[in-house]
């Protein structure tokens, strides 16, 4: 084969052709690429060597010949050449292929092989996409063109080609035969071509040109055109030609028209086709614009294409990008693989990469020339005239700009980076300004980078250089700003330019760098030196604005979002690692888009929180920072409602986002300052919902959990020091919070947000009712509780993590109360740790400075006085002066400055925790699964904790002893007024009520403080009056509480009732702790100052306890009947908290149960939350019934019939404290009630001096009970049931309390008579209360006997009470029962003893009483037994048990003999069985009752 055009180096071997289907094809393509690189190098270097081009032609010739000879398929040859042209951008392939086809045409025609001729035709047809038709017509033989179908007739084609050549090469277009001479133009061209040889100055050339114009009568405009043509051909001599043109006389309009004519020529040629504008024309025009010959705006309008065409083209590109984005995010269930691949759009689609782009688009070509000539003002102006980003979409322009930027910043980059980080030297550009410091950065450098935009991503090296320079610049600025605060103007300008550069160029460019974590780290190194507010602004623009600024970014955002959706649909707790890595890769370039979608999913599906948080561990630092911004943006979204549709509960999205915030901020190092500042800003404008975020963050990061459901054991642990709290006061063990809590503390200190947040939260609590507008009371209460919980949590965190100096510098009482108007409880809550630390420090100083051995108690009291004296002075000025007339300011400060652990030492809880740790050690030692090293480690940890707990308990006990000594010294000055009522009023108003509602620990503190006041015998403090004021009417305090405050108030009341119950239960404890104490001294009316003062006896105290229980019941029933949501809810909450100590009396429990059941039914459909609360309490109350007792067991109700006249006289002037239906419960009346009760009790029941068995003897009514019982049996069971129920509701018509003999209490019959025999005034008050509170018999009201109307009064012998049999059994066995076994009347002897010995000592009458009492019990139980048909069996069992063997008769005679005899042997009662008519009456009565 002939290879005349190819050398041995550029030839295709037979081996390659034989291995075509293997590696041969790729090797040939690689050979073409290498040959083309040699050709390109020759062109760039302007070498005259033609060998590379000849080699390329030879390779193509060999390839074509192989196709013609059949060695390779024709289609394969055509496909390879097409691939070389399109993909490998070998632009000479069409021309070389046309030449090769021309030579092979001749060769094939000469050889005349038919198969070769057919293959040649097929080859020409297959190469139609490679070689243009015009080239084939130009170079192939006409006959061949006819054979392949390119030309229809060879003769006509030959004729047309001859005519065209004649017109192009021989026809003169324009000439002036009259004046112009062609010789003159020839000499002019000769003169201009001899530049640099004969003439050295432009002036000489100008003179010669002028001479030629005159000599040959040349047209000056045509001479100017020739000069411009010469200038275009010799651009390297620009200085000469510019000077020459300046000397040549011309008109500006003519010069501009001539340039426009040149550009117009290339827009449309004679054949109607657009020609390529040569680069030399662009460069000459750029030089002329730079020298001022023409203006850019004048040339801009004359260049093609027009702005309408450019805008239309850019609009089409943008629309195509948006369509692609929509297609990517479109969900197509039936998409094929090819359609799925179409979604992956290359970024190169939106770049102008055509080889002829600059030659066709003259505006872009001129812009490129202006940039090459470093004419920055004109080039930037032209770029701005085009659509945004349009000019830099041209690859040639972008490459030129980046090359110039490399050269600009090369010296500065060399100074800013270490030697190892420097890249290869950059070639310099003539006429380009460079910079060696940040102050020397030219404005054009920033301007070019701004215009470059996201296209900077195409040059990653330049982007890295710019980022490193920017990092050094920001560091220099921060150092200068922090040193003296003065920054020079140049550095300030460079700093501002850097921030703008990040916004407009660097961050958008990062979005186009897929999975480039190194570049993301470079960006973060710059961003982290900026303040968080500037960073967040940049993230906002990046996420919300920049992605819409460029078509490439639109498509990238769509791809990222599509991928994020794909991952989030498949993320679970099992594939967290895989999904996390994928999310991490996506977030390297576009974190905002990824996190925005993740947060939207978390707000809708809270079960994604845990897997999403775990998957975020692969994020970069930049990703974490952007995530913190996205969280704040999601929280601040104005389009989302923070409340659900009912406007009473927080929306699900906010709750989910809050939980996510707490978890992610604890686990990862996110920016906290922005979130805290956001919450502060929300509080400033009066919005409370975002406190939920702060609460979750503090809880998760510090482990401090606020819960109102603490158990008594946990509350007791809260009274200990820090270690006991950590071991036993929290629901879950606190782990892995050291770093997160330290990070939160550092953020608060650095940003100085600790004090502002505390003040804002405290102010927001009291402004919620007004700032939130007209909201539902449930919502307001919830927000109030949120605010309180967050404040407490935040305060505890500051106390636990701030140092003593940091805490002391932030909080001051006078500032908090006078300047910021915080209430007392909040102000003291915030400064209490400061006071405690100051007292400890002052005490240590005194102990260290004291040379003599002085008592530690004296030193402690002196230290307390030194610290609290300024506080007392401040507090004294904040309250009216008359307040301190009744209560000392020292008591006020002492009360508010103490903590629970200073008032009480929970030794029991310390012992429990020590026992648990010892048990843990025992379990570890016996665990075979643990290794020896791990056992040793765990045992050592437990031993260390045990030792620390012991030391902590000892230190707390020592501190408590000092505190008790302080109380003993100060107690005499706490209550200055002898008017105890006023003392109690001020103490309750200023101390107890505010603090008992603050936290659960403060509720315990208040109860403990009251016990302490009683225990140390505080002068002028009446414990009895205090309790009376607390329990007199709790309806008002119940109604004003929020939900959490109701829990705390209920806990406070429960603790007080626990103390009272303890005293009520045992007279010995009462005598030991209450007798002869100032708190239980009362004045007897008419007594002298000292002689009239007596201590309240035990039995009278039990009367008062019943009054308090009755008052509580009355208040709670009032709240439950109010129909008000808040009152009903709070009453149920308080009742739940009181349940261990209240109710104690059976009929009071029935009143509550009935009203709760009614509320439960009423609210079942209206207010489900109230229904649930009522249902829960009803269940608890049913379980509590076994602990209830009768009123007669709770307190002794004395016989008052004998003293009716005396009581009638007394009732006209006084009111007894145990009279449940009395009048007012406040003011001096309470004090009078305390004075009167003992006198009344002494008058009606004088204390016996010796043992008196008269109280044990059965009364007449008791002795006649058997006879009445027999008569009742004869009248029928139905009449009995009716009379008993009517008798219980209308007892005032019967003498002695209206009870029928035998149906009442066998032990306390005379006590009921006392209640029933009250004065007419008392009856009038009771009837008024009945009329006011009872509309129907089913409603509860106060009856004359102290019970609740509508509730069956039960006593110790009543049927249906589980405690009755227990009480009787205990009485037979000699065991004291609850409420009755241990009570002793003052002055009486002990009546307890063993059961057998006591029965032996009893007279016969007492034995009869016991037997009759048992019969009465059996009779009262009959009402319950007959309902299930077990009466006969029980009656037979009881009869047989009570009848001796000698009295038993055959079955046929049982009924008659039992009815004939009143008693069996030994005085036992034997009753007849029910007859058939009695059973019918019973069943009818039962059915009527059920109906």
Q: TL;DR?
A:
This protein is an all-alpha fold and 1491 residues long. It has 73 helices and two strands.
Tell me the overall shape: elongated
| Mean pLDDT across every amino acid position | 75
Structural class: mainly alpha
Gyration radius, in Å: 53 Å
Which strands sit side by side, in order, in the main sheet? 1-2
Q: Report the β-strand fraction as a percent range.
A: under 5%
The biggest beta sheet, please? Answer: 2 strands, antiparallel
Unreliably modeled segments: 1-8, 334-348, 1084-1092, 1199-1270, 1276-1472
**What is the straight-line distance between the termini?**
122 Å
Total of DSSP H or I helical runs spanning 4+ residues: 73
Number of beta-strand segments: 2
Helix share, percent: 55-70%
Describe the protein's architecture and organization.
With about 1500 residues, the chain is mainly alpha-helical. It contains 73 helices and two strands. A two-stranded antiparallel ribbon has the order 1-2. Helix 3 (about 50-70) packs antiparallel against helix 4 (about 75-85) and helix 57 (about 1125-1140) runs parallel beside helix 59. The longest helix is centred in the middle third of the chain and has 39 residues, at about 930-970. Mean pLDDT is about 75; it is low at about 1-10, about 335-350, about 1085-1090, about 1200-1270 and about 1275-1470.
């Amino acid at each position: 084969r002939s290879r005349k055009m190819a050398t041995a180096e550029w030839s295709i071997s037979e081996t390659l052709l034989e291995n075509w289907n293997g590696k041969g094809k790729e090797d040939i393509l690689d050979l073409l690429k290498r040959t083309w690189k040699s050709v390109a190098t020759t062109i760039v270097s302007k070498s005259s060597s033609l060998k590379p081009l000849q080699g390329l032609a030879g390779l193509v010739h060999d390839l074509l010949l192989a196709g013609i000879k059949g060695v390779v398929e024709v289609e394969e040859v055509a496909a390879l050449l097409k691939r070389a042209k399109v993909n490998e951008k070998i632009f000479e392939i069409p021309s070389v292929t046309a030449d090769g086809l021309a030579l092979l045409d001749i060769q094939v025609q000469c050889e005349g092989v038919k198969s070769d001729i057919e293959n040649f035709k097929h080859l020409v047809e297959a190469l139609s996409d490679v070689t243009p038709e015009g080239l084939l017509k130009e170079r192939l033989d006409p006959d061949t063109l006819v054979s392949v179908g390119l030309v229809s007739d060879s003769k006509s084609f030959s004729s047309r080609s001859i005519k065209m050549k004649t017109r192009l090469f021989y026809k003169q277009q324009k000439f002036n035969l009259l004046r112009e001479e062609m010789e003159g133009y020839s000499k002019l061209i000769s003169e201009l071509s001899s530049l640099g040889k004969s003439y050295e100055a432009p002036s000489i050339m100008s003179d010669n040109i002028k001479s030629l114009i005159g000599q040959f009568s040349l047209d000056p405009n045509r001479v100017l055109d020739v000069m411009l043509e010469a200038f275009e051909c010799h651009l390297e001599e620009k200085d000469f030609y510019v000077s020459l043109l300046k000397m040549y006389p011309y008109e500006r309009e003519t010069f501009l028209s001539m340039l426009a004519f040149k550009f117009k020529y290339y827009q449309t040629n004679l054949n109607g086709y657009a020609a390529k504008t040569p680069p030399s024309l662009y460069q000459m025009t750029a030089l002329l614009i730079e020298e001022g010959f023409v203006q850019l705006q004048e040339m801009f309008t004359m260049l093609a294409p027009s702005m309408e065409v450019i805008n239309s083209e850019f609009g089409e590109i943008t629309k195509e990008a948006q369509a692609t984005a929509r297609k990517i995010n479109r969900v197509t269930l039936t998409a094929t693989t090819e359609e799925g691949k179409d979604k992956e759009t290359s970024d190169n689609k939106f770049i102008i990469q055509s080889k002829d782009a600059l030659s066709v688009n003259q505006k872009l070509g001129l812009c490129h020339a202006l940039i090459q000539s470093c004419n920055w003002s004109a080039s930037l102006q032209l770029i701005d005239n085009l659509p945004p980003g349009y000019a830099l979409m041209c690859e040639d322009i972008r490459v030129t700009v980046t090359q110039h930027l490399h050269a600009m910043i090369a010296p500065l980059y060399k100074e800013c980076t270490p030697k190892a980080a420097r890249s290869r030297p950059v070639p310099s550009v003539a006429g380009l300004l460079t910079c060696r410091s940040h102050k020397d950065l030219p404005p054009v450098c920033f301007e070019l980078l701004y215009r470059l935009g996201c296209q900077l991503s195409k040059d990653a090296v330049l982007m890295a250089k710019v980022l490193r320079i920017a990092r050094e610049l920001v560091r220099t600025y921060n150092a200068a700003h922090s040193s003296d605060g003065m920054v020079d103007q140049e550095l300030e300008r460079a700093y501002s330019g850097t921030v703008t550069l990040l916004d407009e160029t660097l961050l958008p460019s990062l979005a186009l760098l897929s999975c480039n974590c190194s570049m993301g780290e470079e960006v973060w190194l710059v961003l982290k030196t900026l303040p968080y507010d500037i960073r967040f602004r940049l993230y906002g623009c990046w996420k919300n604005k920049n992605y819409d600024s460029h078509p490439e970014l639109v498509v990238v955002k769509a791809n990222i979002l599509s991928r994020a959706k794909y991952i989030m649909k498949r993320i679970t707790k099992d594939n967290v690692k895989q999904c996390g890595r994928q999310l991490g890769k996506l977030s390297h370039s576009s974190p905002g888009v990824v996190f925005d979608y993740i947060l939207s999913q978390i707000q809708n599906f809270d079960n994604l929180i845990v897997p999403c948080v775990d998957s975020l561990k692969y994020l970069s630092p930049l990703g974490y920072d952007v995530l913190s911004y996205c969280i704040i943006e999601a929280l601040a979204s104005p389009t989302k409602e923070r409340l659900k549709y009912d406007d009473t509960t927080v929306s699900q999205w906010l709750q989910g986002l809050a939980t996510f915030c707490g978890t992610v901020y604890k686990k990862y190092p996110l920016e906290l300052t922005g979130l805290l500042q956001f919450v502060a800003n929300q509080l400033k404008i009066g919005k409370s919902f975002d406190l939920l975020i702060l609460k979750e963050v503090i809880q998760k990061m510090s482990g401090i959990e606020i819960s109102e459901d603490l158990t008594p054991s946990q509350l007791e642990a809260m009274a200990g020091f820090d270690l006991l709290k950590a071991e036993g006061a929290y629901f879950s063990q606190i782990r892995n919070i050291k770093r997160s809590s330290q990070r939160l503390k550092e953020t608060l200190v650095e940003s100085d947000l600790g004090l502002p947040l505390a003040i804002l939260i405290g102010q927001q609590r009291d402004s919620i009712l007004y700032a939130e507008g007209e909201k539902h009371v449930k919502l307001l209460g919830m927000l109030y509780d949120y605010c309180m919980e967050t404040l407490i949590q935040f305060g505890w965190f500051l106390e636990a993590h701030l140092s003593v100096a940091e805490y002391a510098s932030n909080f001051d009482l006078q500032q908090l109360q006078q300047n910021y108007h915080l209430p007392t409880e909040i102000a003291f809550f915030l400064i209490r740790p400061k006071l405690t630390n100051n007292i400890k420090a002052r005490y240590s100083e005194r102990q260290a400075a004291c040379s003599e051995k002085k008592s530690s108690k004296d030193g402690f009291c002196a230290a307390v006085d030194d610290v609290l004296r300024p506080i007392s002075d401040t507090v004294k000025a904040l309250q009216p002066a008359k307040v301190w007339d009744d209560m000392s300011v020292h008591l006020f400060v002492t009360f508010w400055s103490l903590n629970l652990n200073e008032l009480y030492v929970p030794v029991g809880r310390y012992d429990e925790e020590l026992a648990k740790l010892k048990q843990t050690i025992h379990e570890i030692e016996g665990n075979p699964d643990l290794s020896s090293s791990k056992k040793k480690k765990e045992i050592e940890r437990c031993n260390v904790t045990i030792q620390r707990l012991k030391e902590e308990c000892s230190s707390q006990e020592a501190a408590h002893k000092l505190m008790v000594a302080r109380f003993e010294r100060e107690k005499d000055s706490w209550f200055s007024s002898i008017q105890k009522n006023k003392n109690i009023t001020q103490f309750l108003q200023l101390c107890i009520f505010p603090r008992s509602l603050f936290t659960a620990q403060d509720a315990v503190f208040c109860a403990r403080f009251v016990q302490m006041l009683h225990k140390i015998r505080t002068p002028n403090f009446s414990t009895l009056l205090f309790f009376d004021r607390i329990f007199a009417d709790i309806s008002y305090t119940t109604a004003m509480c929020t939900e959490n405050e109701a829990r705390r108030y209920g806990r406070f009341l429960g603790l007080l009732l626990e103390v009272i119950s303890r005293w009520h239960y045992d007279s010995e404890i009462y005598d030991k702790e209450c007798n002869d104490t100032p708190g239980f001294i009362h004045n007897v009316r008419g007594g002298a100052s000292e002689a009239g003062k007596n201590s309240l006896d035990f039995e009278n105290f039990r009367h008062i306890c019943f009054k308090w229980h009755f008052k509580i019941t009355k208040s709670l029933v009032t709240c439950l009947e109010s129909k008000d949501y808040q009152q009903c809810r709070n009453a149920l909450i308080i009742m739940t908290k009181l349940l261990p100590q209240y109710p104690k009396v059976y009929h009071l429990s029935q009143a509550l149960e009935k009203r709760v059941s009614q509320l439960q039914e009423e609210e079942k459909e209206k207010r489900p939350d109230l229904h649930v609360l009522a249902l829960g309490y009803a269940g608890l109350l049913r379980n509590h019934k076994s602990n209830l007792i009768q009123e007669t067991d709770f307190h002794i109700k004395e016989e008052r019939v004998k003293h009716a006249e005396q009581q009638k006289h007394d009732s006209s002037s006084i009111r007894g404290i145990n009279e449940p239906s009395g009048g007012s419960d406040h003011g001096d009346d309470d004090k009078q009630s305390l004075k009167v009760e003992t006198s009344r009790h002494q008058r009606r029941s004088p204390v016996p001096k010796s043992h008196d068995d008269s109280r044990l003897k059965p009364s007449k009514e008791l002795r006649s009970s058997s006879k009445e019982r027999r008569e009742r049996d004869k009248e029928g069971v139905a009449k009995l049931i009716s009379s008993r129920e009517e008798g219980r509701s209308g007892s005032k018509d019967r003498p002695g309390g209206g009870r029928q003999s035998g149906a009442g209490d066998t032990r306390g019959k005379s006590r009921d008579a006392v209640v029933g025999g009250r004065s007419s005034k008392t009856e009038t008050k009771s009837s008024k209360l009945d009329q006011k509170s009872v509309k129907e018999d089913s409603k509860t009201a106060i009856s004359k006997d102290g019970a609740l109307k509508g509730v069956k009064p039960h006593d110790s012998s009543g049927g249906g009470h589980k405690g009755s049999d227990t009480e009787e059994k205990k009485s037979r066995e000699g065991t004291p029962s609850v409420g009755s076994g241990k009570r002793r009347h003052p002055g009486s002897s002990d009546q307890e003893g063993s059961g057998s010995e006591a029965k032996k000592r009893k007279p016969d009458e007492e034995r009869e009483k016991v037997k009759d009492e048992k019969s009465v019990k059996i009779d009262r139980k009959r009402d319950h037994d007959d309902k299930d048909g077990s009466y006969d069996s029980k009656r037979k069992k009881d009869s047989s048990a009570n009848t001796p063997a000698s009295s038993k008769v055959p079955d046929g005679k049982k009924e008659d003999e039992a009815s004939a005899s009143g008693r069996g042997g030994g005085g036992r009662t034997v009753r007849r069985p029910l007859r058939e008519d009695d059973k019918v009456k019973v069943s009818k009565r039962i059915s009527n009752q059920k109906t």
